[in-house]
Amino acid sequence: MPSPPAMLLGGLLLIVASTTVAQRRGQEAAGRRRAHRVQHGQCSYTFVLPEPEPCPPEPEAFGGSNSLQRDSPAATLNLGDWPSQRMRQLEKMLENNTQWLQKLERYIQMNLRLELAQAQQHMVQNQTATMLELGTSLLTQTTAQTRKLTDVEAQVLNQTSRMEIQLLETSLSTNKLEKQLLLQGHELHRLQGHNSALETRVQALETQQQAELASLRGEKERLRRLLGRQSGALAGLERTLRAASSNSSLLQRQQHQLLESVQRLVRVMAQGPASMRAADQLFQDCAEIQRFGANASGIYTIHVANVTEPRKVFCDMEASGGGWTLIQRRENGSVNFQRNWKDYKQGFGNPAGEHWLGNEVVHQLTSRATYSLRVELQDWEGNEAYAQYEHFQLGSEAQLYRLSLSGYSGSAGRQSSLVLQGTNFSTRDADNDNCLCKCAQMLSGGWWFDACGLSNLNGIYYPARHHVRKLNGIRWHYFQGPSYSLRTTRMMVGELRPREAKTHSEERVLDPNDLLQSVFTL
Length: 522
Ligand SMILES: [Ca+2]
Prior knowledge:
Elements: H1 4-22, E1 33-40, E2 43-50, H2 60-65, H3 82-271, H4 274-279, H5 286-292, E3 298-302, E4 311-316, E5 324-330, H6 341-346, E6 348-349, E7 355-356, H7 359-368, E8 371-378, E9 384-394, E10 403-410, E11 421-423, H8 439-443, E12 455-456, E13 475-476, H9 477-480, E14 488-494, H10 504-508, H11 512-521
Antiparallel strand pairs: 1-2, 3-4, 4-5, 5-7, 5-14, 6-7, 8-9, 8-14, 9-10, 10-11, 12-13
Helix pairs in contact: 3-11
The structure holds calcium ion (CA).
Calcium ion binds at residues 431, 433, 435, 437-438.
InterPro entries: ANG-1/2/4 (IPR057439), FIB_ANG-like (IPR037579), Fibrinogen-like_C (IPR036056), Fibrinogen_a/b/g_C_1 (IPR014716), Fibrinogen_a/b/g_C_dom (IPR002181), Fibrinogen_CS (IPR020837)
Signal peptide: 1-22
Main location: secreted
């Protein structure tokens, strides 16, 4: 396919050729030529056109054959005007040609522009396609490269992380080992310390034992010397006793006289005014009876305020100044002390033997006046002990016969075996103790159990040889421990008097006449 410029050139040549044919007649006049220039963009085309020779005047037939049309009849043509006509003809032709050429130029320009635009577009498309192909291939290559790189990177990362994990594991195990080593070191250190402490203790114990042995040897020697001295003293005492027994017969005689005097006095009083007998009905406790003059221990009748029935009580007129009203006695196990609340309230047993006077009577008594409490104990080895409380008071039944004690003294332990304040009375059917358990059911009897306390004089009476290791027996912790059941007990209320300080022998050597005098002054 020929290129557009070639086609253009061809077209131009054709035009030129046709023009040449049209003007063949004037070829002979080649000397006269006319040049035409056509500008197309940067290019310029020059057409050299032959200039026609002035034609000779033709006959009239000639005039009608030309392409140029004439409106005027040929007859009017003048030969003198011919060259100028011819000139005008030619000029017109030239003009036509020029116009034609301009059209051609425009056509060429348009075609060229279109062709150029198409060519450019085509080129651009081609180039774009090429570029696209190149870009695609580049992209493909890049993608492949990237994929390879990514694979390599992933491999490197995997390797790195694996190594890191291994490193971590290694460091962890190292740490663990270090810790274990440290712990073992500590343990060793501790054991060494312990060992040295033990060694020191053993040495100290050895030293102490040696010192104790030495002191024991010294003590033994001292005791041997003391024994020698005491056996001498005993012999002296025996001699003194023998001498004293002769004196005691004298005292017995004095006592006998005194007794006879008292009996005489009692007979006199019994025969006296009736008011003396009525007074017997008004005694509220043994202290009053004693003050009235009765000095013999035994059964007496008392009338306690707010208690309707008169009560028979045992009065101890000897112990610690006398005038003591017994509220409890155990001596042989003849009375059952496993009783309920009502029995302990009302009292039971025989005042001459084992008995419980009754919580209500004791409450009424101790509400009326200030009382002391004396507890006397005896074990199975013949040891005696007592416990005294300067103030003793028993609450009402509504207060669960709560115990209030103060001012403890005595030989039955440095401490009281009864809780001093705030313990309520409990029986097997009334659990008022301070224990989640039921002390009365566990330890038997009725008592001021705490939880469950250090004493219970109303426990089970155990006979001889059965009295040890008995938690539910008759206990007084600070006298014989927690599981020793005592032989006899007495509890009595009265008042502690300075007379208590005097000994029995001192009381007995009093002049009987002084006693008689005091009785008569009543
Ligand atoms: Ca309880």
